[in-house]
Design a protein that fits this description.
Strand order of the largest sheet: 6-5-4-7-10-13-14
Mean pLDDT: 78
Low-confidence stretches: 4-25, 51-101, 438-459
CATH architecture of one domain: 3-Layer(aba) Sandwich
Order of helices and strands: HHHEEEHHHHHHEHEHEHEEEHEEHEEEH
Oligomer: single chain
Shape: globular
Number of strands: 14
Structural class: alpha/beta
Distance between the termini: 67 Å
Strand content: 5-15%
Number of helices: 15
CATH topology of one domain: Rossmann fold
Helix content: 40-55%
CATH superfamily of one domain: Translation initiation factor eif-2b, domain 2
């Protein structure tokens, strides 16, 4: 190719376009800018979908509204770089975003109540999602169903209702068509709330059972077989496993001990009640945190059973922990490096107990074991509704509460609220892992090992 004349001003046709100076210097800033553009485009698509659902909105108003979008005072887009909305429930896409840098890029943010309602109404109108699944999605999104075991059981029960009402279409194969139908229901559940490790293992178990169902079975027999397999998983992998752990973990509680528990775990609750039934005289300290206050229900159950119980918030942990002899913790998942992935605040309890040389026992069923490795809480996490951390009182109410109200937080565009639901506890702070090892069939044995690696890799 011949070179251009020396006096030519125009660059060659194939010369690359000049890039932005800041994008050349800082590749990370360019990636963040690209991520924000994608988020803005997705938010505009969601807004367009919601606007089409309103019959009174005319298409001819779309052009002037798009033209004057930058001039509107309260922006209705949920993009991170626009002016925040008046309600925090509608402004969840910019949680944790400070300026142009996202601090929590891998945190799954909750959907707004309006978007959830639109999705549920659309699915109900199309009649593609089973009513049991729709009800479960509402309970998951509003945190009415909490806890790894309860979520796994609720999802399996809902999918069992789908299988019970399923009818094989003419000319279709049950194993293939039912697997597609179940995957569609699971996708809708994931949209309401991300699936945790225990629920993911339960769903994969059910999908495998559907894929290997005997083709010689009739429709009624195949459905009955799948329902039996669901009950088998719930009974052996969740209920019986929890009982085995409770029996062996309760043997670690002795007369005169002061046992601490954080929030509420069904396995920990069963362990404390089992030790009380064994005739052990001990005291329990329940540490709780906002906004869910799950420890209140645990404290009420323990007091109702006649166990002396002390209730305190996470801010009183350093004051109460010197009295403790044993710390029992539940977990949502046990990572492959031995780190428990549990509700936020677990790591604080474990690390402070380790500083006071207090044994820390993690009670976890094997179906919660994960092959993922996570070194901190920012690699993967889930965020709750940010407005739950704010004061629920009106600005006009006369109160001495120091919490911000929704109106105060929405009026400050530079203030962002983040509610992380889980944290990761470094494995060096864990003294023991209580788990169960399946021996085949319905038999199982409880183990408490000082070396967590033997639990993870010795099965």
């Amino acid at each position: 190719m011949s070179e251009p004349p020396a006096g030519a001003v125009a660059p060659p046709a194939d010369a690359p376009m000049p890039k932005e100076p800041q994008a050349v210097k800082d590749k990370k800033a360019a990636k963040e800018l690209k991520r924000e553009r994608r988020a803005a485009a997705k938010a505009q698509q969601d807004g367009a979908a919601i606007s089409h659902a309103k019959p009174e909105q005319k298409p001819k108003d779309a052009a002037p509204r798009a033209k004057n979008m930058s001039e509107a005072a309260p922006a209705k887009s949920t993009a991170a770089h626009l002016v925040p909305q008046a309600s925090l429930d509608k402004d969840l896409s910019n949680v944790g975003v400070l300026g142009d840098a996202s601090l929590f890029g891998n945190v799954v943010l909750p959907r707004s109540a309006q978007l959830n309602a639109f999705s549920w109404n659309a699915a109900s109108a199309r009649a593609t999602i089973h009513p049991e699944v729709l009800s479960l999605c509402h309970q998951l999104a509003t945190f009415n169903v909490r806890g790894a075991n309860k979520r796994a059981i609720a999802v399996l029960r809902a999918l069992g209702a789908v299988i019970r009402d399923y009818r094989t279409p003419q000319g279709a194969v049950l194993s293939r068509d039912l697997l597609t139908r179940v995957s569609q229901q699971v996708g809708h559940i994931v949209e309401s709330r991300p699936m945790n490790t225990s629920t993911g293992h339960a769903v994969r178990f059910l999908k495998y059972e559907i894929s290997v169902v005997d083709s010689n079975l009739g429709e009624a027999e195949a459905k009955e077989h799948l329902l039996d397999r669901i009950e088998h998983f719930i009974r052996d992998r969740i209920i019986y496993a929890a009982k085995v752990i409770q029996t062996h973990a309760a043997a670690k509680i002795h007369d005169g001990d002061v046992v601490m528990a954080y929030a509420r775990s069904s396995v920990i609750e069963g362990t404390l009640l089992q030790a009380h039934r064994n005739g052990v005289k001990f005291e329990v300290i329940v540490i709780d945190s906002r906004p869910l206050f799950e420890g209140r229900e645990l404290a009420e159950r323990l007091i109702g059973a006649g166990i002396p119980t002390t209730y305190g918030l996470l801010s009183s942990l350093s004051t109460l922990i010197p009295r403790v002899n044993l710390l029992l913790l539940g977990t949502s998942s046990l990572l492959s490096n031995g780190a428990p992935y549990a509700r936020a605040g677990t790591a604080m309890c474990a690390m402070l107990a380790h500083g006071y040389h207090i044994p820390v026992i993690i009670c976890c069923e094997t179906y919660k074991f994960s092959d993922r490795i996570q070194l901190d809480s920012f690699v993967v996490n889930e965020a709750g509704n940010c407005s739950d951390l704010l004061s629920q009182e009106d600005d006009s109410a006369q109160s001495k509460s120091k919490l911000l109200t929704r109106a105060e937080c929405s009026a400050e565009p530079r203030l962002k609220v983040v509610q992380l639901l889980y944290d990761v506890t470094p494995p060096r702070y864990i003294s023991a892992v209580a788990s169960e090892v399946g021996l085949g069939g319905t038999e199982s044995v409880g183990v408490i090992l000082r070396d967590y690696k033997s639990v993870l890799f010795g099965i």
